[in-house]
Design a protein that fits this description.
The chain has 193 residues and is mostly beta strands. It has two helices and 13 strands; from the N terminus they run E-H-E-E-E-E-E-E-E-E-E-E-H-E-E. It is globular and about 60 Å long. The structure holds D-sorbitol-6-phosphate (S6P) and zinc ion.
């Protein structure tokens, strides 16, 4: 007999993207993303205030990390910038690189930036109702380019895992910044393959 998981549902709040009954909520502050924003001086200047950049509401943290199991969560990124760069998530590859993921836009306006380990970049716009596929082996980060919260649902294999190292070290080949009041995607001058 297989080991059965008891089915369950959780309400997702479509006003703000939270899961009010989530058993686990991660809060990520600027200090958790130290060194990731391209303007180091702007980052240092904001560090004393240490704003909350985003929350991850984990619907199913107890689902075992076994082949075939799924987990889901919502991510709520608050609006703001470090220098001219919009608030974003840390970004990761899946430690188990062959694992894909689905994102579904819930609230606000964002971008999903993806990158292969060879440096190919792909950027998709995320708004409420947009479903995005993160295929296997693509690193991924989300960015709030709006003036309110940006939130999305993520569904992913429980054994996907997280590899934050490569992105923490090298970042993405493109940066998303605001110039003269408009969103722009520019090459990351520090990026090397
Ligand atoms: C998990 C999925 C998301 C992110 C979340 C925060 O595979 O991609 O739930 O974990 O959006 O991003 P990060 O990069 O801080 O884990
Ligand atoms: Zn992921």
């Amino acid at each position: 007999m297989p080991e059965y998981i008891t089915p369950f549902t959780r309400q997702v709040d479509l006003q703000n993207g939270t899961i009010p009954t989530a058993p686990l909520v991660h809060k990520r502050y600027l200090s958790d993303l130290k060194g990731l924003f391209h303007d180091a001086a702007a980052e240092a200047a904001m560090m004393a205030a240490n704003p909350l950049l985003y929350e991850v509401h984990e619907a199913s943290p107890d689902i075992p990390m076994d082949d075939g199991q799924l987990r889901y969560s919502t991510t709520v990124i608050f609006p703001g910038k470090v220098g001219d760069e919009y608030f974003f998530t840390k970004g990761h590859y899946h430690a188990n690189g062959s694992r894909a993921e689905i994102y579904y836009g819930l609230v606000g306006e964002g971008l999903l930036i993806m990158q292969t380990r060879e440096g190919e970049v792909n950027i998709q716009r995320m708004t409420p109702g947009v479903a995005a596929l993160v295929p296997p082996y693509w690193g991924h980060r989300t960015i709030n380019i709006g003036t309110g919260n940006f939130a999305f649902l993520a569904v992913y294999p429980a054994d996907a895992g997280y590899d934050y190292g490569a992105i923490a070290e090298k970042g993405f080949a493109s940066l998303v910044v605001e110039r003269a009041g408009k969103m722009e995607v520019i090459p990351n001058p520090l990026w090397q393959r």
